[in-house]
Amino acid sequence: MSASAAGPTIGLDIGGTKVLGVVLAADGSVLHEHRVPSPVLDLPSLVEACARLVTEIDGRGLPIGVGAAGLVDRDGRLTYAPNIPGVRDAPLRTEIARATGAAVVVDNDANVAALGEATYGASRGARHALQVTLGTGIGGGMIVDGEIYRGAHGFAGEIGHITVDPEGPRCACGELGHWEAIASGSALGRMARELVASGRGRAVLDAAAGDPGAVSGEDVAAAARAGDPEALGLVARYADNVALGLANLAHVLDPELIVVAGGLVTMGDLLFGPLAGAFRSRLEGADHRPPVPIVPAELGERAGAVGAAVLARSLAR
Predict the structure, then answer these.
(1) 269 contacts 192 by C-beta, under 8 angstroms
(2) pLDDT tens string 204-233
(3) What phi and psi values does residue 144 have, to the nearest 5 degrees?
(4) Other beta carbons less than 10 A from residue 68's beta carbon
(5) Distance (Å, rounded) from C-alpha 40 to C-alpha 26?
(6) Strand pairing of 9-14 and 18-24?
(7) Residue 78 pLDDT exceeds 60
(8) CATH no., domain 125-297
(9) Choosing a second label site near 131 at 20 to 30 A (CA), which of 75, 185, 291, 306?
(10) Other beta carbons within 10 Å of 202
């Protein structure tokens, strides 16, 4: 994707716990960065937080791009946000524009994160890329022929809610067997707690300071780095769960590469090694098609804000 722009723009990344804002220069460098807690009570509180953040990063008057965790339609309405329960059917673009006096564009947070990586990160130069964020749930962004694919209503990319097992664990959305119920970062933590509850996983429990209820995916990673066989086995099981969804998506989208984001990418080869093997074993005709690399994201937690700022460049054209 082209990285050219006429001047600086603002990117706001709205999540369930924080709003991260950046001022992005035309060359892709971050000029200012700040964050504030993300209000979850109502739309006015959220808009006020965004307007305050724009002032904090000295971005008044600049075009604003916003990435919001939830369903965002083509008019910039946040219709459903599972992690911001007080905000539903909200005219987010209109209200942020009113509060700041700036031109505003709003999109889904995973879409703008994919745009950020495609412009300045791991998928730059690719015209067909899939980005998957393994976090509390699973976020997805799809670059198709050099553009974000949004679908008919702007809701494409909700890949975490693909059903992979109708009798599987219950997803946070309430349905059974969604991919994110077995392959999100939260799912790895649940798998680890189940292991500990069965009387196994001593090294994982030790990494959680002996508290079974506090066991998380990070504790699995710590035990796996120390070479614990049970933790390594758990990572392999988890990697196969991730590969199941990635292979299904690759069969539909035929991407050049897959970018994986989220805190678990810090595991490096401990995760990406078994993930690559499991993905290849599930991919139709793997020996008769170009390889599809699975690579870690490069922009870290800034990806959404940077991508939102890139999206805001469309307002200045």
Answers:
(1) no
(2) 999 999 999 999 999 999 999 999 999 999
(3) -120, 120
(4) 31
(5) 32
(6) antiparallel
(7) yes
(8) 3.30.420.40
(9) 75
(10) 15
Q: What is the reported pTM?
A: 0.89
pLDDT digits (tens, 9 = 90+) for 143-165: 999 999 999 999 999 999 999 99
* Residue 4: per-residue pLDDT: 53
| Rg of the chain over all Cα atoms, to the nearest angstrom | 20
Tokens of 223: 């035990």
* Average pLDDT of the residues of the chain: 93
Closest by CA position to 265, among listed 308, 302, 221: 221
- CATH H superfamily, domain 9-117+301-316: ATPase, nucleotide binding domain (3.30.420.40)
Q: One fold for both 9-117+301-316 and 125-297? A: yes
* 18 beta partners: 37
Domain parsing of the chain, residue ranges: 9-117+301-316, 125-297
Question: Please, are residues 224 and 232 in contact by the beta-carbon 8 Å criterion?
Answer: yes
d(CA 61, CA 63): 7
CA diameter of the chain: 61
pLDDT tens-digit series, residues 282-312: 999 999 999 999 999 999 989 999 999 999 9
98: which 2 tokens? 């009113």
Strands of the sheet containing 64-68, edge to edge, are 30-37, 18-24, 9-14, 64-68, 104-108
Nearest residue to 312 via CA among 154, 132, 105, 170: 105
